[in-house]
Automatic annotation (TrEMBL):
InterPro entries: Beta-lactam-related, Beta-lactam/transpept-like, Diverse_Enzym_Activities
Pfam families: Beta-lactamase
Provenance organism: Streptomyces montanisoli
Protein name as it appears in the record: Beta-lactamase family protein
Domain Beta-lactamase-related: 23-402
SUPFAM superfamilies for this protein: beta-lactamase/transpeptidase-like
Length: 410
């Protein structure tokens, strides 16, 4: 990771060095008082890294520090990668946003929608319009997550082995066929709900491209961008570099989840386009630079500039925000002043957001408290990596946004 380092002085890029230092000073307290095991923060402007810092441990018990080549579970920060893959196929004419999902996954032909009852006895009706690729990209499909625990359909998913994962032995194709037999929360397009949509989108990518999701990612995205250390499992010395995953124990102290790192050294049977990637911060930085570059970075062009512009516009009907159109459940973003594009949350109204931000800023986060955003108006990208479940434990993202924005003085 020799190329992952600070590339410019703060003043060159419109930042105040003393104010940038506030970021580290603030987040060190999260480690010093035991709220986080450790973290990595990067800030870039105009394609040059102006701030890069690490603090704390990737594994507390052994004392191994966070380093720039530490590997992190990206969880839902995988979703933008899958969305990029789908839009690459869109540009090639292989799929259209209006294509029914059943075109690629036949079991999605006879979907039904929950209207009343319980998880044990449901009343349902047929969908009034097919679920489309656009519905998957925008999380307006009617799908859900079992871990929401807010609706009988969530309970059906959990009863069938889908909460934070899937039943042993399932492939992505197996899971999609199983989900197609479970009622939707609402008619496609009627609401926004954070869901398994991007996992289904990953299966669409596989069928449309004729490649497994890991092969498509590697050959079409990772290799062109130089994301050489990212994948659905770790190899080589990856197990030693992988950060331990933590939760807060009953006493409030950090506790390892017990998730065996050894299970991540083998290629998984189930390839999750919604949350399965593992990689270093440097690789995610390369992805954000491609997005900031409107589809191109380092001599590689993955998407046309207008495609990225379209992906990062609010797609919710009437231009409303998630507070008006979304179900206020667990998500990787706030709802007020935030819309949703094709794979990203999009700031629509910084005043309603109640924070300093630019209209048009877009990004997402992961379940282990990671986050990134791209601010085209300020030419900025920011990423934050740690490993604490769940992401809603602390208001890390809101505080980081404030700390980055207050350091701008140009």
């Amino acid at each position: 990771m020799a190329d992952f380092a600070v590339e410019a002085e703060a003043g060159e890029l419109g930042f105040d060095a003393g104010r940038l230092a506030r970021i580290d000073r603030y987040f060190r307290s999260y480690v010093d008082d035991g709220r986080l095991p450790g973290w990595l923060i990067s800030v870039s402007r105009a394609g040059r890294i102006v701030h890069l810092s690490t603090y704390g441990h990737r594994d507390v018990s052994s004392g191994r520090p966070v380093e720039t080549d530490t590997l992190w579970r990206w969880y839902s920060m995988t979703k933008p990668v899958t969305s990029v893959a789908a839009m690459m196929l869109f540009e090639e004419g292989v799929l259209q946003l209006t294509d029914p999902v059943e075109k690629f996954i036949p079991s999605f032909a006879d979907l039904r929608v929950f209207t009343a009852g319980s998880d044990l006895k449901q009343e349902t009706v047929p969908v009034t319009e097919p679920m489309t690729v656009w519905h998957l990209l925008t999380h307006t499909s009617g799908l859900t997550y079992g871990f929401h625990r807010a609706h009988p359909v969530d309970a059906i998913l959990r009863a069938r082995g889908f909460e934070w994962g899937q039943p042993d032995g399932y492939t992505l194709a197996d899971a999609c066929d199983a989900w197609s037999r479970i009622p939707l929360l609402f008619q496609p397009g009627a609401e926004w709900n954070y869901s398994l949509s991007t996992d289904v989108l990953g299966r669409v990518v596989e069928v449309a491209s004729g490649q497994s999701l890991d092969a498509f990612f590697r050959t079409r995205i990772f290799e062109p961008l130089g994301m050489d250390d990212t994948g659905f499992h770790v190899s080589g010395d990856g197990a030693d570099r992988l950060a331990t995953l933590y939760v807060r124990g009953p006493d409030g102290a950090l506790a390892p989840t017990g998730a065996p790192a050894g299970s991540l050294v083998r290629p998984p049977r189930y390839l999750s386009g919604g949350g399965g990637l593992i990689g270093p911060a440097a690789d995610y930085h390369r992805l954000t630079q491609m997005l900031l570059g409107r589809g191109a970075s380092g001599g590689a062009r993955l998407l046309g500039s207008r495609t990225v512009d379209h992906m990062t516009r609010n797609q919710l009907p009437g231009g409303v925000d998630l507070a008006r159109f979304g179900r206020r459940l667990f998500s990787e973003t706030v709802f007020d002043g935030t819309g949703f594009g094709l794979g990203f949350s999009v700031v629509t109204d910084p005043v309603a957001l109640r924070n300093i931000a630019s209209a048009g800023e877009y990004g997402w986060g992961g379940a282990a408290s990671t986050a990134f955003w791209v601010d085209p108006a300020e030419d900025i990208t920011v990423s934050f990596f740690t490993q604490l479940l769940p992401s809603s434990t602390y208001p890390i993202r809101a505080h980081l946004r404030t700390l980055v924005q207050q350091a701008l003085v140009d």
